[in-house]
Structure formats: structure tokens, C-alpha cells
Amino acid sequence: MSERKRIVIVGGVAGGASAAARARRLDENAEIIMFERGEYISFANCGLPYHIGGAIPKRDSLLVQTPERMAWRFGIDVRVNTEVIKIDRQRKEVISRDKKSGSEQATPYDYLILSPGAEPIKPAIPGIDHPRVFTLRNIPDMDAIKKVVDNEQPQHAVVVGGGYIGLEMAEALHERKIRVTLVELADQVFNVIDREMATPLHRQLRLHGVDLRLGVSLTNITGEGNGLKLDLSDNQSINTALVIMAIGVRPETKLAENAGLNLGPRGGIAVNEHMQTNDPAIYAVGDAVEVKSFIAGLDSLIPLAGPANRQGRIAADNIFGRNSVYKNTQGTAICKVFDLSVGMVGLSEKLLKKQKIAYEKVYTHPQSHAGYYPGAAAIRLKLLFDPTDGKILGAQAVGSDGVDKRIDVLAVAQRAGMTVYELQDLELSYAPPYGSAKDPVNYAGFVASNALNGDVQLAHVDQLPPGKNQILLDVRTLPEVQTGTIEGAMVIPLDELRGRLDELPKGKELIVFCKVGLRGYIACRLLSQRGYRCRNLSGGYTTYQDFFDLAAAEPEAPASICGAPVCTHPAADSTQIKPDQTIDARGLQCPGPIVQLKNAVDSLQVGQAVSIIASDPGFPPDVAAWCQSTGNQLADIKPEQGAVRALIIKSEAKALSTNMQPLSKNKTIVVFSGDFDKVMAAFIIASGAAAMGSHVTLFFTFWGLNALRKDNPPPVSKNLIEKMFGFMMPRGARKLTLSKMNMGGMGLTMIKGIMNKKNVTPLEELIENARKSGVRLVACSMSMDLMGIKKDEMIDGVEEGGVALYLQNAEQGNVNLFI
Ligand code: FAD
């Protein structure tokens, strides 16, 4: 019989209990002693918020294992309410203290496994120790919060921190009919993902009435009566009944540090691939240890249950002679935020950027399962990959259905070292209720591979606005455009594109976009084969909206609705309004719901109402924007069974505008003034508009004509008056003077000097550039005649035209300026 080993374990939950059970399975003969400071072992910390919220009704369900059962089944000496206070490495023993009696005891070990976890961070702000300020780590914490909720039925609570515990607690309290304010210092919740991917979470929180305060921190807590007054960094204060602090956790390393064990650069206990510390007899696992990230091997603290459990098992393996290796942490995580799930694996874009790791990305918005089968919902999926070999660096997904499955498949693919090319080949289970013949994971692989193969050039929302030689092209249908488009975009729906190619300027690069990227891709394939340079905006308008957080940025948005841009405030009592039509657009992606809405509204009388339910996560901002642009009234919008229901009343004011025409790209500017500064302004606006894809016409009349005169004109025949007039007026852009403070030319010289210093393009060059980028320069023929200016005196490229030409352009345009 082998020598009897004595294993001592500190911590009796995820990592500790796993290590203990594995040790027993490997060696029936070993002596295993597990110390746990608290009263409970092996409880489900991940389930704590759900018991508070009521989703897990029975408290006992969280107690996965009791000390008695563990002792009995595994033959483990479980010592609860006993804290290990010291490790004596020389003597190979731990000193523990019984929390009830206070007595201390030394326990020798052959091997020690530390799994003390991580403690909630409590920032040093005044009032933080008030009894109504809670953290949530274990069963007693949960009991304390639940007691207040059950007994007092508070009206309001504040959750500080938008990580997964904060988000889960916000939802749990909301389920208990408590109004919640969520305060988060960053500009997003669930900080492990990228900001644009968190935008749907912000909308979801607001949709459920959570008062979300981003970019704000808690600075002071004062007890007031039975509740609390909280001061925030934006000088606001909130009165509330209780606070949940959930701003993150810190590894519990004191015991290890005091024993002289090494810590890693991020402050966790340093271990090797066998989970062994710098003392060969001591192993450490779980939230307390520092790990390497699976991608790029970065030193990381990733406090998750899966890694803790696996590491506990690996530590036990190695103690009993098995060469078991921990193969780094991918950080695969998922969180429920009301009706949405958000999941991620690997590195985020912001981390890749910070670490200067080269990457490419694609955004896709596939349906969770076949669109024709009820319940399908769009998933926002972001895939990050190596631009040279296509290796998967990270993935993030948000949606109401199928997020877990896709993140898990991608996590497996990443662990297997697969590339985006190989995602195309994955054979994944499919029947309409579960997926699509091209699963979202296959689809992300197609899109990423197309980009790497050069089948399409990608543009990204963070590269907007477009450069001087780029033009935005929106290829969506008109009802979609009515929900908003990117400023300055030309609109040619994909199905009309072939017939309208002549409207596109050949010399410019086109940045094509649709709702999610698919029609943009088709358009790009068409255009590039027709000789146009183009890029497809990855993720389309949906990703654009998320990136710029358009809905949340709308100042008039009443928070009580959803943070979406609502055209009107909700009708006083929308519950009294009986809809004349009802649409079930669940499972339809944009433009489906909006097209159905438009058709319904078209068939209604003014004052009648339509109720529509849709599951597309982009629906709330879309319907709000559509109402705004069509003038119909968004009377109500609220969550319903995992979807969103909106009530729209057909409005008199702009009832006709549902038939909106494509956005005009024409801009006209009348240049009446011959002042240097005013002409400058005209050309700056014109050049900007042209760069954004507009057709610009500058109509020069009276004094403005002087800007177009040549410096050295050829001899032209003029009568005496014309000659005198010509002599008195400035000849060309270089001779124009300032409208104010010209001071005999001194002001002008000064301003030109400043312009030069600040690299502002001189007027002559601006004129030339504008001309080259297609700006039409039209000289008013009537004014030319009156002032005796001849065509030959004009710079190249100037057309002569009358008021009809100007009016025609102005009528077709959406901007008309007089300078
Ligand atoms: P723990 O499970 O925290 O166990 C450490 C134990 O050690 C504690 O019970 C502590 O009392 C004890 N201890 C510490 N020091 C001593 C000492 N000196 N002597 C004796 N005992 C000691 N992870 C996920 O992956 N998914 C989730 O959905 C998820 N949800 C969570 C929700 C909540 C509310 C919380 C708190 C955590 C959640 N986690 C989740 C994180 C997950 O629970 C942890 O990653 C995991 O429990 C870590 O395991 P561990 O063994 O390192 O630490």
C-alpha cells in the first residue's frame, strides 16, 4: 500500500470542493481535510442573485453539498466555520481558528491546496460600511439582502457596478418590483466586451425601467432615516433603501503572501501550469490565482467558476502523480440581462488594441434559428481574428436566443486552434427550431473568410465619417431609410443599383452599407466587378447605431420608455387605446417589422392605432426613429414576453410622409458676397459636402463673381464703363478683402498668416480642389452682363447659368445657403 498522503485544502466552494472530491477519487487512502471559513461548502454562488429575484425559489437548491454529505460520501474531514490564519511552510502545517470558540489549532500537511477565492471590492468612500450597503459573495450575504427585500419591500435600490453580478442583481431586484438605479463608472456595462456590443444591453436595461447612469461613480453614502442618501460624481444625489456594491473582486492572497508565496504581476497567487506555487508542496486554484490568457498568454485575473473547478481537479491530479496541465483561460462567459443574453470568449477588441495585437473583425447579425420558425431573433455577433492566418482571437454575442450555443461553439473552435476559414466547414445541428442550414457560426466564418480572401474590402464604423475621397452609399429600402441613415449617405436600394450606376461618381471609393452587411456585400460584389472601388461597412447600419449609441444619445428620449429616440411622449394613458390593427412581427428582422408597420399605417385613418410586437433587438430604436421621420405618434413601447410591443397612432401632421423619397444629395450655395472670409466659408462647406458624397452647386452672383476671376486675364473687349468696373473690383480670389477688420489689407495679411500657420488651405487651392472634386461653379449670366465680366476672364471650369439652373438645383436639394 502506498504511503498515506495528507492533503489540506483551504476554501470549500468551487475550487476547493472540486480538488477534495477529485483527490478522494484518485486515492481512497489519502487523508483529506477541507477548511471553510463560512458555514456552507460547495454552494452555488452563481445562483445567489436568482434566489433573491425569485427564479430559484428554494434556498436549499443552492446548497449543492452539505458538510455532512461531503464527509459521508467522500470521507473528507470538513471543518466549517474554521479559518486558516497562517501557513507555516517550514513545519508544513496550517494554523486554523475556530470562528465560534476562537480556539486555534495546527494541522500538518504533505500537500496544501489554496482555493480562498476573491473578495468583493469595497472602495474607501465615506459611509461604505453602513449596514444598508451590501455585497454579494456567499449565502449569508444573500440572506441579508433577501431579508431586507422580503421584509421591507423597498421601493428603490441602487446597484453600483455593471459587471455580471451587478447586472444580475439589477434584474433580480426589478423582478421583486423594486425600482433600480444602476451606477457604472465606465461608459458601458459588462466591461469585458466592447462598448458597441454593450449598447443593446443599455437599451434592454432602460426598456425594463432601470435608471442607468453610465460614466458616474458613487462618492458618498449618508444614512438618512431608514434609508440612504447617495452622492454621485456628477453632483447628483439619490435617496434609496439599499445599495448593492458590485464593482468587482480582488483575489484573496493575504494568507499566501504572508507565507512568502509569490504573486503574479496582476496581484494573484502565481502558479505554474500544474497549479503549483513556488513552494512545491503548495498548490493554488480558482479566483485567487493569476492565469495566462489562452490568446497571447497575457497575465490575467479571470474569476470564473469553470476555471476554478478545472484547476481544483488539476491540482489534485498532480499531487497524486498525474501530469495534468492547465491550458490557460479563454474567459468564456455569459450573462442574462432581462430578455437578452450576452456572451464572450477570448480577447476583446479594446484589449487587442491595448496589447498592440494585430486583428481584423467582422460583425454579423444572423437569426438565432430559421426566420420562418416562431421565436427567431437576431444575434449580434462580433468575431475578432488574426489578419494573417485567420486564427480566432475573440468573439462576443448579444441576443435573446441562441447566444450560449454560438459562444460555446466558438470557444471550442478557439481552443482547438481553428481559423475563421475552418468555421465555414463546421457541421452543426440544424432543424428550424434550433438553427439554420448556415448556422450563425458558419456564417461568421464566411464573412470573415471573404474579408481575408479579398472578396470584399471591409470598412468599419469606427472609421467614419468617410474620408475626402469616399462616399457613403445606403442600399437599403426606403422604409428602412426612414428609420434613419448615416449622415451624408446617398440612397440607392440594392434592387435599383444596376440601373442607377451612372449616379455614382467613379473616382471615389464607395462605403456601402445596408441593415446588417449582407446586401452591402452583394452590392460591393456588383460594384467592384463594374470597376468601382468599394468597401462594405461591416455590420451595416445596425452596428453603426450600436457604435454611436444613437438611441441613447437622443436628448428627448424619455427614460421611462427605453432610451430610444421617441418622436412624442407616450400618450397620457396608452392602456386606454384600443389598436385598430395588430401585427405580430416576431422573428422578422428589419426591415420586416417596419415594412409591416408602414403598410398597416398606410391603411389606417388618422387617429387610428396599430399595435406591433417584434423580437428584432433593433426594433425599439427603429420604430422610434421611423415615427420621428414620418410624424406618426409612438404612444407606447414596452417589453413583452422577450419581445417589444409598440403602439403607434397615425398622425395627421405628417401622415403623407410615410412615402418618403430617397434622401436628396444636392446642395446649393448662392455666393453673393465677394468678401474673402465669406467666400472661404462657402468653399469650405462645399468641399465638405462634396467629400460626404453630395452634388454641390455654387451659384456666383454680383460681388461673388470676383472670386472666380483670373489673376491675369487675356485681353477682352469691353466698353469704358465695363473697363472701369473691372478695374475697381478685386480680380480673383487672391485680391478679395476681409468683410470686417480689413484695415487696408493688414487684417487680411494677418488672417492669411494665421491660416498658413494652422495649415488651412488657401482660398485659391480650396477653389481648385472643390472644382476637382466635382463641385459645380456656376456664374450668374445676368450679373456677369451687368458687371461687364466676360467668360474668358473666369477661371477654368466655370459654367454660365441663369436663375432657372439655380432654382432647378435648389429644388432637388436638401440644403440651400445664401452667403
Ligand atoms: P470561492 O468559490 O469563492 O470559494 C472560496 C472559499 O474560500 C470561500 O467560501 C471562503 O469563505 C473560503 N476561504 C477564504 N479564505 C479562507 C481561509 N483563510 N480559511 C478558510 N476558508 C477560506 N462564475 C461563473 O463562471 N459564472 C457565473 O454565472 C457566476 N456567477 C456568480 C455570481 C455571484 C453572485 C458570485 C459571487 C460569483 C459568481 N461567479 C460566477 C464566480 C464564481 O462563483 C467563482 O469564480 C468561483 O466560485 C471561484 O471559486 P473559488 O474556489 O476560487 O472561490
Describe the structure.
With 819 residues, this protein is an alpha/beta fold. It has 25 helices and 39 strands. A five-stranded parallel beta sheet has the order 3-2-1-7-18. A five-stranded parallel beta sheet has the order 9-16-10-11-12, with helices on one face. The longest helix has 16 residues. It starts with 5 loop residues before the first strand and ends with a strand. The site of flavin-adenine dinucleotide has 33 residues, from α1, α2, β4 and α8.
Question: Brief overview, please?
Answer:
This protein is an alpha/beta fold and 819 residues long. It is 30% helix and 23% strand.
Strand and helix layout:
Layout: E1 6-10, H1 14-26, E2 31-35, H2 48-53, H3 67-74, E3 77-79, E4 82-88, E5 93-98, E6 104-108, E7 111-114, E8 118-120, E9 133-134, H4 139-152, E10 156-160, H5 164-175, E11 179-184, H6 195-207, E12 211-214, E13 218-224, E14 227-232, E15 237-240, E16 242-245, E17 249-251, H7 254-258, E18 282-284, E19 291-292, E20 299-300, H8 305-319, E21 333-337, E22 340-346, H9 349-354, E23 360-364, E24 379-385, E25 392-399, H10 403-415, H11 420-423, H12 440-453, E26 457-459, E27 470-474, H13 478-481, E28 490-491, H14 494-497, E29 509-513, H15 518-529, E30 533-537, H16 540-547, H17 550-553, E31 581-585, H18 592-603, E32 609-614, H19 619-630, E33 633-640, E34 643-649, E35 666-671, H20 676-691, E36 695-700, H21 720-728, H22 746-757, H23 763-772, E37 776-780, H24 781-787, E38 798-801, H25 803-812, E39 813-818
Parallel strand pairs: 1-2, 1-7, 2-3, 7-18, 9-16, 10-11, 10-16, 11-12, 26-30, 27-28, 27-29, 29-30, 31-32, 35-36, 35-39, 36-37, 37-38
Antiparallel strand pairs: 4-5, 5-6, 8-17, 13-14, 14-15, 19-20, 21-22, 22-25, 23-24, 24-25, 32-34, 33-34
Helix pairs in contact: 1-8, 20-23
The structure holds flavin-adenine dinucleotide.
